[in-house]
Structure formats: structure tokens, C-alpha cells
Amino acid sequence: MPDETRLSPSDLFNLIGTTACPVVLDVRRDEDFAVDPQLVPTAARRPGLAAAGWAQGFSAESVVVYCERGLKISQGAAAWLRHAGARAAILEGGFQAWKSAGLPLVPETKLPPRDDQDRTLWVTRARPKIDRIACPWLIRRFVDPAAVFLFVEASQVPAVAERFGATAFDVDGVFWSHRGEGCSFDTMVEELGLATPPLLRLADIVRGADTARPELAPQAAGLLAVSLGLSQIYDDDLAQLDAALPVYDALYRWARDAITETHSWPTSASGIASGVREPAHV
Prior knowledge:
Elements: E1 6-7, H1 9-15, E2 23-26, H2 30-35, E3 38-39, E4 44-45, H3 51-54, E5 62-66, H4 72-83, E6 87-91, H5 94-100, E7 106-107, E8 121-125, H6 131-142, E9 148-152, H7 157-164, E10 167-168, H8 184-191, H9 197-210, H10 220-233, H11 237-257, H12 269-274
Parallel strand pairs: 1-6, 2-4, 2-5, 5-6, 8-9, 8-10
Antiparallel strand pairs: 3-7
Helix pairs in contact: 6-8, 6-11, 9-10, 9-11, 10-11
């Protein structure tokens, strides 16, 4: 039987970026984290040796924890999580195994501070279309699943960012915005250490749709059409974001797992006459 208390780096990597991703917790000691302050994508920090005090907050959740090498601190934190009712596993080999496998790491120095509910807070212009949906998708799937997004009048973005401790994005004059011919999504993919082949493919699509260059990717015109349609359906920006997230989920899974697949329609006379379809994927 498979050991459900352990997960390999490759298995966890395949879950990150999907709706099946577990909660990921970095339980390294502060001194270990200070040597290399990077995080496995979606990971939040927790003091491993104090797991008895915070484990209850993850009851009924699926959780993966990692310390430096996947030994005593991971084992103990996972045991406390299971005691609290969570489905907890350790990352085999811990942080060092993930790093040795060459998998993406998010630099902690690039992340906004978290609020008192351990969430990152972001603000941008209201009535999103492309970039202001793509960036929240990237953050929710690869950085902070609990991230909060505020959509406000364009003129008020800087003031809201200052007064509410939020990080502005996709507006002029801020770090997380367009650079050269790239869009804000490109900036986030690069700065957050997430430049994997699937996300770079997705970035081409987003850039083509967002900057009126559909020639950059065959899918760009379709993303633009879907995005504009969603903006017509929804008056509420957060409802639009919720509706659009599955679009980006699907594009990411195509970019990761299905770029070689095509769809065909039966063309043979025998197939049409018999009513039998040819396989959809070839």
C-alpha cells in the first residue's frame, strides 16, 4: 500500500498549481530558514517545534509539512497535525530534496507582509479583464491560496495600498506591473521564481491577450474573448474572479500536460455511417 504519510517532491510539485493542492507548511527552524529564505510554492511558515499550539487550525485539512531534511521536525509536526484531525504528510527529504530536484522556490523577500489572519493583501484597479485576473490566479495557485484582492477605482489604488497595508499591482509606478513589452503576469512569474515551462507558455497567452498581440500564442485571442465575455456577465469583480479562475486552471493544465494532444472529428465514411467516433485525442 502507498505510504500516505510521505510525499515525494515530484508528487507535491504535480499538485501545486491545481485545485487538489494540499496546504503546504514550512516548519524549518528560523536559523535554517535564514540561511536560505525561499519557500516551496504556496507554503506558509509555521514554527515546527510549536506544532501543538497551531495544529488544531488545520483539522480536517490535507497538509504537507517540510523541515530542512524531512526528519524529526517534519515528523513531529505531522504527528501533531494528525492528532488534531488533519491528513498530514511530510515532504520526503524536506527542503533540501526539493531544492536539489531543481523545483521552483519563491523568495520570501519578494512576498508582501501577511495580515493578522496570515493572508497577503493585494489591491488593483476595478473591472479587471486579463492581467488583473491572471495575476490573482497565479498568486492563489502558487504563492498564497488565502490571498485577498481588493478592486478599487484606479485613482484610489495608491491610497488604498498605503492606508490598508496592501500591495498594489498592475498600475503604473509600482513593482508588480508591466515592464517593457511584458505584462504584470510576466513580472510575477519571473520575480517569484516561477518561470517553469508551463507558466512561461501561459505567460505568452496572457501577454498576447493583454497587450493586443494575439500573434504571440494561438490561444491569446480566445482568452481575450472569454475574458471580455466574463466582464460583461459579472458586475461584481470578485464574482468575476471566481468565475475566471477555472479558465486559468484549464489553460495551465493544457500548458503543463496536454500541449501535444489534438482533437479530431470522424472523417471516414465508415465512421460516419456506423455512428462510431474516432478517438478524441491522438
